[in-house]
Amino acid sequence: MNNNFIAQIQNLNLDFKGKKLFKNLNFNILENKSTALLGTSGVGKSTLLRCIADLEKENISNGEIVLKEGTNIAWLSQENSLYPWLSILDNVQLYHHLKGNKTKLTLQKAKELIEKVNMSEHLNKKTYELSGGQKQRVALARTLMQDANLILMDEPFSALDAITKIQLQDLTCELLKDKTIVLVTHDPQEAIKLSNHIYILKSQPVTVEEVASLQGALPHQLSNEKLWNLQEELISKLLESQI
Amino acid sequence: MKKFFKVLLPIIFLFILWQSVIEIFDLPHYILPKPKDVFFQLINQYSLLWEHTQTTLLEIIIGIIIGCIFGLSSAFALLYFEKLEKYLLPILVISQAIPVFAIAPLLVLWFGYGMASKIVMTVIIIYFPITTACYDGLKNTPKQWLQLAYTYKLSPLQILFKVRFKASLPSLASGLKIAVCIAPIGAVIGEWVGSSKGLGYLMLHANARMQIDLMFSALFILVVITLAIYFLTDYLTKKFIPWASHLH
Fold first, then answer.
1. CATH number of the domain that B145 lies in?
2. Distance of CA A86 to CAs A128, B94, B148, Å?
3. B216 inside domain
4. Number of folded domains in chain B?
5. Nearest chain B Cα to A73, which residue?
6. Are B201 and B215 a contacting pair, CB within 8 Å?
7. What is the pLDDT of residues B205-248, one digit of tens each?
8. With 80 as the cut, is the pLDDT of residue A43 above it?
9. pTM for this entry
10. Which helix (H) or strand (E) holds B18?
């Protein structure tokens, strides 16, 4: 395995609802970089992410996904992924809670992470009393708690209002800067802001095309004219992929 | 206070309507007794009513507990062994298709004159709502909760009990509220068909002796039992599953 890659998707074939969604799909994910998978709704972005997380075993007919040794995966999805019957602290310690191995150390770490995502003052609230943005902050703390090196994000900001979205995108970049991120999104602006490599998924069967490779620290600011032009380019490519 | 009046007003209205019907149509006491006569029976026949109430209450409670155990076990089995669904579902539907009145004499024959036949009847009546409600809840666990559990590499049993079962609680609570309302029907039908104790037996006995006011007082107690169990279940589900009403 090439050492620069944390995950290699090799000749992946996947059937979904009787259709061949992926046919000999090949695609690599660079380590310590943020990769965006951009595509229109229903193209298969989330399914590809689920394949990487080993959640699509029963639908994969051929091919394999090779992960670099020692890779731990964490999953960050949309706002309603908190378990409502658990407290905020237990949601952050979810892995340890479900495995039945919570300790004083995990509790201490959870409290520190809750502070990092600016949720300390809401610690005694129930999860259903939180706003969408606050829930997503807790989910971010939970992701950090796992100490994973590969973070799979399935449209984690899509249900948030504009201001909360910007705040959370910035916080995510700050807290996950040393990790490898694979972000699934349908928003070109989000893809540019949060990633080093942008791929567009086209159907059917799915093909993955790299459309941009961006330098500089994340988040990228769209005040740059070059990035504005890239956004235009991505939009026109997405429109093309729909036809 | 406002809530108290909301409950009290319909009850007062019902009593006024009841008394009015008797006055307007000049009904004799053996057709429809006056509310005050029923009230006096409740006081005068207190010990007799209490003795029969205990029997019926016990049948209902044991029936609900056993029905829940069977219902939950069936729901887990349906989910865990997918192929079982096509075999178990017809049994579930059959348990609802056959009128309980039709099988009541058989159950008395098989399980005897005592409590057992009434408990079985109660179990049969509540089995379906409990099983389907729990199964629906288990099956419809939100995808994002399951995905997390899968990425944590939990075992199927851990996912079943720590994620799916917890997620099914709001649905189960709805099924339970229906079940506790219909459970007394099972017990009373069983007592009508063959028994020597219980409110159902007392109602038949009083009816045969034209003691309609006593029959109504037994009926009143049955209504109170049903309401009490329902509100207790509602209170407990709200207390222990407070997040249920915030799901959507």
1. 1.10.3720.10
2. 10, 38, 14
3. yes
4. 1
5. B151
6. no
7. 999 998 999 999 999 999 999 999 999 999 999 999 998 877 65
8. yes
9. 0.83
10. helix B2-25
Under DSSP, is residue B97 helix (H, G, I), strand (E, B) or coil? helix
Is some CB atom of chain B closer than 8 A to the CB atom of A53?
Answer: yes
On chain B, the residues whose CB falls within 8 A of the CB of A81 are: 144-145, 147-148
Q: What are the structure tokens assigned to A72, written together?
A: 């731990």
The per-residue pLDDT for B248 is: 57
**CB within 8 Å of chain A, chain B residues 107-146:** 142, 144-145
Q: Which of A52, A54, A81, A83 is the mutation pick for testing B, counting most B CBs within 10 A? A: A83
- Structural domain contains residue B88: yes
Distances (CA, A) of B233 to A85, A194, A228, B67, B210: 19, 49, 59, 15, 36
Of A160, A188, A204, A195, the closest CA to residue A39 belongs to A188
Residue A75's DSSP bridge partners are A152
Q: How far apart are the first and last CA of chain A?
A: 36
Is 90 exceeded by the pLDDT of residue B101? no
Report residue A79's pLDDT band, with 50, 70 and 90 as the boundaries. low
Nearest residue in B to A154, CA atom: B144
Q: Which two tokens stand for residue B50?
A: 């209490």
Q: Which residues of B touch A75 (CB under 8 A)?
A: 147-148, 151
Chain B residues inside the 8 Å CB shell of A53: 147, 150-151
Q: Which of A136, A105, A109 is nearest to A122 (CA)?
A: A136
**Closest chain A residue to the Cα of B154, Cα to Cα:** A99
With CA atoms as reference, the chain B residue closest to A142 would be: B148
User: Average of pLDDT values for A128-152?
Assistant: 91
Tell me which chain A residue has its CA closest to the CA of residue B162: A98
For residue A165, give both structure tokens: 């979205």
- Which of B4-13, B37-46, B59-68 shows the lowest per-residue confidence on average (mean pLDDT)? B4-13
Once rounded to an integer, what is the mean pLDDT over residues A66-75?
A: 90
Domain that holds residue B100: 56-241
Query: Left, alpha or beta for B54 (phi > 0: left; psi -120 to 50: alpha)?
Result: alpha
A2: pLDDT strictly greater than 70: no
**Contact between chains at B151 and A75 (C-beta distance less than 8 A):** yes
Tokens for B233, please give them. Answer: 């279940």
Q: Which residues of B touch A126 (CB under 8 A)?
A: 242-243
Taking one residue from A and the other from B, the number of pairs with CB-CB distance under 8 angstroms is: 51
Angle at A81 between CA A195 and CA A221, to 5 degrees: 20
